[in-house]
C-alpha cells in the first residue's frame, strides 16, 4: 500500500478533521452540562438571596433591572429582587451589582431593608487573588474588621485610606474600593426602583450629570459617588 505523501495540503486536511471532531465533542459535552450548570447557578442565587436578606421564609415578589451610568459614562445593569415574607410584607431587596476588581469582574449580591440599611452580602463571582482580595467574602461581614452590616450607603461607603469609615482588606485596597463601589451602586439602583420610593413616601428623581448620578428625595439629598 502506498504511503500517504506528507504535504501541506494533507496536514491541513488532518488538522481540519481533528478540529471538526473536537468541536463536535465539545458542543455535545456543553449541551449535556448546560442544564445542570444553570440549575446550580439558580440554586446558588436562591441561597444567596436568603443569606443576604437574613431570612429563609421569603419569596421574590418581583425582579427588576435598573440601568445607570457610572462616572465614566459606561452603562451598568443592576438586577433587583424585591423580597417579601410569606405574609406579603415588604422586606426590602437583594441587588446584584458588578464592578471591576483587581483581577476581573467582582459581582456582589447585597441585601437591603426597606430603608436601605445593609442586611448582608455575598460574592457571586470574583477573580481576586487568593489570600488577599478574595478575603472580601468575609472581611466586610458582621463582626469583621471591615464590617458594613447595619450601615446605610446613603453617604457612600469608602475605605479609611480615602477618608472613609471602612477598613480596607490588608494589602488589597483596590479590591476593597471595588467592593464598596459595588455596594454603593447597588444601593443607588435599589433606591431608584418604585417600591424603594414608596417605602419612604417620597418622590425620587434620578438625574445624570456629566456621567455622575445624583438622587434627590423630597426630604433628603443623597451624597454623590466619589
Topology, pairings included?
Elements: H1 8-53, E1 58-69, E2 75-85, E3 90-100, E4 105-112, E5 118-125, H2 136-139, H3 173-191, H4 194-200, E6 205-209, E7 212-216
Provide structural commentary:
This protein has helices spanning 8-53, 136-139, 173-191, 194-200; strands spanning 58-69, 75-85, 90-100, 105-112, 118-125, 205-209, 212-216. The protein is an alpha+beta fold. The strands form 2 sheets. Strands 1-2-3-4-5 form a 5-stranded antiparallel sheet, sandwiched between helices. Strands 6-7 form a two-stranded antiparallel ribbon. Residues 197-226 have low confidence and may be disordered.
Compact summary:
This protein is of the alpha+beta class. It contains 4 helices and 7 strands; from the N terminus they run H-E-E-E-E-E-H-H-H-E-E.
